[in-house]
């Protein structure tokens, strides 16, 4: 028996075969992969996983791919006990899940792209594409180069230079669209309908999104096969956040962990916070917004998984909170200066929001808290210009060193 039963509409429940489709043709709801958990349970065990590859593919039994061929090094990133940051915040069991060192392109997107392009290969596609705020573009470009696929990445024209170069180096066609991510995404949906390409986050989306579950699988394994009490994770489309929740619950379904009592705390940038705003106003629907934040990687004004992210927060006793641009910068600095981890703006948002949850008394000191750091600071360095101390300039003399440097410290 196959582990994947097919696809199912998240709105009306209609079922479909596992094909490169993403929308229900009756109600236009998004499609999601459905597994045969009884069958998986017969095959899976902690021991088998622990003997598997040191990559996300150790969890292949819970992923919608038969034969992984792309992105064989993604995942299995460190879970670091954050002693110093924990001390600052008054948390005794704080952990950082550090996807800023994911391979090959330094963000969690290497997980979803490995799964999406392995699946695209299985389907027989030869051209990969995506709509991206930068990190996804980097990852699709790198994995396409490795897989020998043609590649087109579509980005908003105003992205950070480091993110643009981080795609161009792999030699895809980079299309810089005049507009924000939501304009890019709309255009890509039209192109995906028109051309036979594997748009990882459009027509391959049901499979792509499953890659984020591995962020939950790894954390549970790294904690000694248990789910944390609290998760803090950033959101743009809300896919990552909802799939972390799905991941913990799947581990329970197949008997690898005993319980899931995790409170799912979400983080958005105040300047693009359609999910957090809905949460604040007690709505169960999303009002799209026009993004205006330095956190460009998570600047999605009309989040595809927004309503499901609200549902997960309700189901898990979680919440949503935001950080201003200044708080995001402070978050980046705080993580760097306590734990030596340089994260990008999405991570700065997550740390700033973690601080707020603690200040509001929503996390108690003994709880096991996992904070997801999903991207690398070397890609968004421009936001720190003018926000850090400057190098001390000296002549190459001992005298100058003593007067200008030692006298100051
Ligand atoms: C670094 C980083 N973190 C978090 C996210 C949010 O992921 P999602 O769109 O699945 O909510 C993104 C992209 O959207 C990202 O690039
Ligand atoms: N942040 C993403 C944006 C698109 O990804 P999606 O999963 O929200 O569709 C990126 O890095 O490009």
UniProtKB/TrEMBL annotation:
InterPro entries: NinF, Ser/Thr_Dehydratase, Thr_synthase-like, Thr_Synthase_bac/arc, TrpB-like_PALP, TrpB-like_PALP_sf. Its cofactor is pyridoxal 5'-phosphate. The modification N6-(pyridoxal phosphate)lysine is found at residue 109. GO terms for molecular function: threonine synthase activity. It catalyses: O-phospho-L-homoserine + H2O = L-threonine + phosphate. Pathway: Amino-acid biosynthesis; L-threonine biosynthesis; L-threonine from L-aspartate: step 5/5. GO terms for cellular component: cytoplasm. GO terms for biological process: cysteine biosynthetic process; threonine biosynthetic process. Residues 73-375 form the Tryptophan synthase beta chain-like PALP domain. Pyridoxal 5'-phosphate binds at residue 135. Keywords: Amino-acid biosynthesis, Lyase, Pyridoxal phosphate, Threonine biosynthesis. It holds the Pfam family NinF. CDD domains: Thr-synth_1. Its EC number is 4.2.3.1. It comes from the Bacteria. Belongs to the threonine synthase family. Catalyzes the gamma-elimination of phosphate from L-phosphohomoserine and the beta-addition of water to produce L-threonine. This is Threonine synthase.
